[in-house]
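Render this sequence as a predicted structure.
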Amino acid sequence: RQTYLSVNGGAICHAQKMLTKDMQGRSPTHGPDTDSQRIGDGVVRPTARSARTRPGGDGAKGGACLLTFRRRSDGADAPNGGRCYLVPEALNREDIKVDELHIVGIDLAKQTFHLHGAKQDGTVLFRKKLPRAQMTKFFDQLEPCTIAMEACATAHFWGREMEELGHVVRLIPPRYVKPFVKRQKNDSNDAEAIVEAALRPTMRFVSVKSPDQQSLAVVYRSRDLLVRQRTQLVNALRAHLAEFGVVTGKGIIQVKKLAAIIEGEDCPLPDTVRGVGVIYLEQIGQLTDQIQGLEVTIRKSARQDAVSVQLQKIPGVGPIGVMALEAFAPPMQCFQSGRSFAAWLGLVPQQHSTGGKAKYGRASKMGQADIRRHLVAGAMSVIHWAKSRGFAGNTWLERLVGRKPTMVAAIALANKMARTIWAMLSTGEEYRMGGVAAA
């Protein structure tokens, strides 16, 4: 009988460890194209002379070896009929061929990490599973190489750790790794797919964020979470009161009207409902205080940074939008032009071109959603202000609003704002009136 264990893209084939007694002590019959030797435990392995390698292999040490088996008259299997692969030597030893190691792919997790090491041509050198406590020690012993990981929540921390050890870090968006996963989805295959994706010459990578950038992201995300929670409470309170005929408009400003109704002496609501309403109002008030506290921190940080002050001169860009830029946008040197930055934000039409015919649809929305949301909201505020106060000589925006729906015009204006931001940050120029407004 034969037992197969899937490792390293091939298979490790072992003869049954305890063969029949009459099989022990006999030398295996050699096949016509393999020579074999018996090990003390009964396992039959081919010798180095008989090794046949797969493309890219290096004989019995690193490639796949052919081993044939034949069926004996007594029912036992002897060499001369089947095929198996030997484990590469690097998998059987702790020492790795560091002089040939080019890239290591890491499938990140909380406690257990899967590693995939390969040469520059993609040939597999090793696969490992390491606990979290041994990660730094293992990579400290390696020669400087490329470390590839998916750009997830903890990737930036590990990226900084690897850079301190002298390695080159490449973070890949998960959606670009997915096409390289072969058949079954598991941690080992994910690590291999990361290496395959990182070796592509046209692959796009994510910049490693600094601790300051991640700190800004924590503040921004926390405020955003509190705003959503407050909105949920307000909507829930409006829905409950609507069941008793108390209907108000949308928005946080309507909370004052709801509070006046609940706390009023002539309140038409039952006492139980009034008690629940008071709980809602207290929770909404606490969230409002916390949101205002975070906004004070955001505005204070925006006033202290010269670049943030310059960016806020662009109509429609505020301190929260500037914080989103600083927290989530990579250096502007990563983009070849302002249009590339706008495309990264998803502010360009989505293409459905084929047969040489260009077909464009709605905005792609492929990219950083937080920055895009603030730019579009800022563009909407500029358009509403221009409609009520006048366009002040901005003929481009006036013609655009005249012939396009408001949201389409807002997307176009947000695109121009993104290109203006790229120009200011990449060249160091100050904002000139008309950078967004003029055609």
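Summary. The first helix runs from residue 89 to 92. Confidence is low (pLDDT under 50) at residues 1-94, 435-439.
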